[in-house]
Amino acid sequence: MSQFVIDEGFLQQVELLQLLVKNNIAGRFGGNHQSKAYGSSCDFADFREYAPGDDIKKIDWNAFMRFDKLYMKLYLDERQMHTRIYIDASRSIAYGKGKKDEQALKIAAALAYMSICDMDKVSIYAVKNNVAEEVISGMLGRDRFYEEIGKLNDIVFDGDSHISEAILRSTVGYGDGMSVIISDYLTDNDFLDGIDHLVSKKRDVFCVQILDKEELNPKTRGKMHFFDSEDIGRTYRKNITREIIAAYREALEYAVERLRGHCLSRGANYILVSSEESLHEIFFGKILELGVAK
Amino acid sequence: MSFLYPLGLLGLIAVPILIIIYLIKNKYTEQVIASTYLWTLSERFLKRKKPIKRITGLISLLLQILAVIAVSLAIAHPVFTLPGQAMDYLFILDCSGSMYIEREGKTRFELGKEEIASVIRGSAKGSSYSLVCVGDTTDKVFEDVTDSKRALSMLEGVEGSYTSSALTNALRLAQEAFAKNNALQIYFVTDKGYESVENVRLVNLDGGEKNCALGEVTAQTAGSTLTVTGELYAYNGSASIQLSLYVDERTEPVETKDLSVPQFDGENAFAFTFTCGEVEYDSLKVKIETGDALALDNETVVYNDKSDDTYTTLIVSDSSTFFLQSVLRSLGNLKTYVWSTEKYETWQADPSSVTDETHGTIPADFGLYIYNGYTPDALPKHSAVWFINPTETLSYTGFGVSDREDFGNPPKEEVAWNDELNVGRLEFSTSTATSVTELLQYVNIGEDLLSVSYYTSCNLIRDFRELLYCNNDPVVFAGANDFGNRQVVFAFDLLDVNMSTEFSFPVLVYNLMNYTFPQIVDGTSYACGDTVRINVLSNVASIRVETPSGKILYLDTSSDVAEFEMTEVGVHTVVLTSGASQSTLRLYGNLPKAESVPSGTEERFALSGTPSSANRDGIYDDLWLLFMILAVVFVADWMVYCYEQYQLR
User: Fold this and answer.
1) What is the mean pLDDT of residues B41-64?
2) What is the CATH number assigned to the segment(s) A8-25+81-290?
């Protein structure tokens, strides 16, 4: 079980960021994200004719002077977003020296804190086999964040993960915020349907792929018999030569581009991070650059 | 097959190590990784392997083993013993005079060359040949020649010598070559028999031929009778010979004898005598008329030295030359003129204006000028010069006159040396150089107490023979001046030295006179290998020597003695040129006595060391370096491969 520690100073820096969603939020409670409903924000939306009982403070007197008719000014409403973070809790995330699990937990916690600071609701799920287990549910406010974020350390990274199946079977909401999927995506199991499902539910999707240094740039040479940590029956037996390494690099590029391309075609966001990268580089570099936050 | 460096085979230990490494490395290392997804996916991107790639590992192992074997063998340098394999040959050819002994119309020297040529012709391609000729000197005629035709061509041009052979040098050369390459095939081609020969193939050309040789021949004249005596040697059996005496250039002998000469027993030679009335002769030739195996020692020539030894001497002096004249007169062969300085200067200015009452005629030039207490304006260019008590420095004399050391007292006769007397003590040179000792021969050095009341200090510029010193200054010295003429200097007046009355003085003057007018040569008969010393007379400009084979030598006349080595049997004509006149000497070169012996026996000719059968593999030797380089390159490539393959694990 991985224990993650996040720097409080970094959290203070992250407070300044805000997650950006492309779709108007259809949340129930007031928040900081634009909604399709008319409300009381500062953002002008439309006019309509005055009806008895309307608040006379919202009558546009300038329009009355021009048209000699009473018109009401309508404003957009700002609603609360529900950020759902899915952490791949399969064994492949935790296996090896790469500490991808620790990096996943840190990114999840930091994104959760960003969202919390924006008065959003945050739920964090651990995807195991074909189930998305709710680790933290509907977390609101900083106090609750500090109370509950420790639960992430209780996640046990074990077994396989079927991201699509798990998401399809879980409640994902409709148009009420952003879904973040944090995984290494090194699996034959389907995860693209899960992304499509979330997109179809009018949710902003943000895929974070974490790979460790050896996976990005393997140094292994010679005769090797690899066993898959999630399924010992999956093996790979070869003399690792320059040719094999070249083929591996092509395969890695293919896998990354496949995911990136899929996300791009669905309007989802995607970043690839190394388990060695610092949170500062990820949030104030890649995420800002991608436009997921501002 | 053998190996030059068997220790190189230790490298083969690496072969089993390689196989063990291969077997260990051939096992797959098991490792659990996060996901095999990407590795499995990489199969799609793997280029299709050629079938040979599947056995790359095995091929790599085989090549590595081959490389190790190649390097080990290259270091060990295998040598294959194949029929007709190439070898290194060193031929030592005896070129001494005895090799001219003939057998069936061919000399031993020619037979020796044929033996060498047959070995060269029978050798395999790629062999190398060296030839060392041993005569009076040891010469490498050719060395490590790999072209047999070229070697044969150079062998053809080799000529023998008439001297004894310097086998010590040959042995040294052979030993050096054998130390470098103990597989060297050394052939020693000689006519000397050896009791033991090691590491050398001896080719003995001694056929037991009979030979008669003339020994030393001398001629003496007594009244009207000429007696010629000599010795005869018969080797390998007694001989009946006809011996003739020839006078001058006559073709008919003046006397002939039939002699039965017993075999030479090593000690007692057979003596012969000719007696005739030919008192006046230029040369006498004694010849063995009956032919034998070696013609070179069958005749010898003795020349009569009839050179004129009367020399004209001019003494220029204003003071008494009593002592000097007395001594010169006692030598007997000097025609001495004594002139005053005034008369000399007049003669110098106009020779026709001067007459000599004593001798009547005055020669155009004198053989020796003796200046007593006088320095002429110019040094004679073609004559010897003596300076007695020189007063001034004269150009071209090779010395300068500086201070006059005056002791103030007259010289004392037969006085015990006493420091209280103000006289200078004369001391003879203690040099052991031959040039000095021959001038002080028979002089009572250390017995006569010689003193001088004054002397002139001289600075010597040229290299003179210093004979006497006073206060460490040379006071009597002799040598050649800048004109190359012989010159003697007494740096004091003969009246002011007690030396003139001592026994040493006439002896010293005699030696100096012999130096001034030397015999041109010591004798007319030499053995080949002897050094002939020719005294360079005062006005000799050049000395030309013509050997019997027609070879011309010009000797260096800048010093007072010229030398050359007698290398041929026969008459050597020496022409001395002085101005417009020439004089001719004839010297006879004889074969060394030892070379007349047809069956000589030496003790041993042995080279230390153990011969090796590891011979060269000829032209394949050149591939060795290429083989080595290829192996090293392969090993380097393999190491780079290993570095890439394993170093990061």
Assistant:
1) 76
2) 3.40.50.410
